[in-house]
Design goal:
single chain; two-stranded antiparallel sheet; 10 strands; eight-stranded mixed beta sheet; 11 helices; alpha/beta; 2 domains; globular
Length: 332
Amino acid sequence: MEVQTVEETKAIQLFEWIDSTTEKVINQTDEPYLDSLNIVLEAVFNEGLENREESLIQTVNEALKQVTIHDYDQKAIAKAIQFAVLKGMKSSTQVQHMMTPEAIALFVGYLVNKLTKNEESLRLFDPASGTGNLLFHVMDQIDKDVEAYASEIDPTLLTLSLYSANLQEKSVEFFHQDSIQPFLLDPVDLVVCDLPVGYYPDDVRASEFAIQAKEGHTYAHHLFIEQSMTYVKDGGYVVCLIPDNLFESEQADLLKNYIQQSGQIVGVLQLADSTFKDKSQRKSILILRKKGDDLTVIKQPLLAMLPSFNDAEKMEDIVVKINQWFEEAGLS
């Protein structure tokens, strides 16, 4: 029998309140779960609901009397929102309504710390932030000053990440836009991204990229890689979750040529099959570094197949080997 920690108990307690209040909003508005969740988080953050139908305001404000958000720490709040978002995504029919699993986000955070060990501060950008789960977990693990930026085109996901950041007291500047379009953003030190997979419909915009397909639509995940490299500074890193077949598609040669010209592959870490319910959804972690003056060329990229995150002993062994690789490559 598992014993819950105080933090887990508090997170579940808060989730149950958020969930029941969200269901009340659904019953009155007939809005989808995630949109109704946004209304609840808005009310929690503002300590009351305003500018809505009077009956809805009354229902939500009455529910607010049952909870005091200041009784919960940031981790419990983050976990409770995560539970609620996951529930909402199960009922969502939209493919983009997916959340980067916590274990993967935590591991990306570990890699970011290794890559930026010698930096005093960090400018961080996620161009496909979704609900912010990946970005927030990475921020939690960085033990230095962070300027964080995020972009998301879906208004529901953007609002969720905005209220989640506010309730966790995280400072993030959000862009609501198509992330393949230009940004008003100075170069950052590092980009993290769970790449959206599929074709990008705007061929005119895609034609401005070196990586554009010769025929038909260009892969959006390819364009996200080039866009990320564009907005990272010389010598900076891009750490992204990629589909396992990234370098095997009919457009793979264009991608390989672009990476060779603009930077170098630092590492590719294949995630365990058990991490994904559907084998077709399998992903790996790709680490790229943008070219810059006087950068040491990595002779042997970090290549590894990660065990299940639930296998503590094997994970400990692989982390020891990864740490050793960083030492030998002069990156740590």
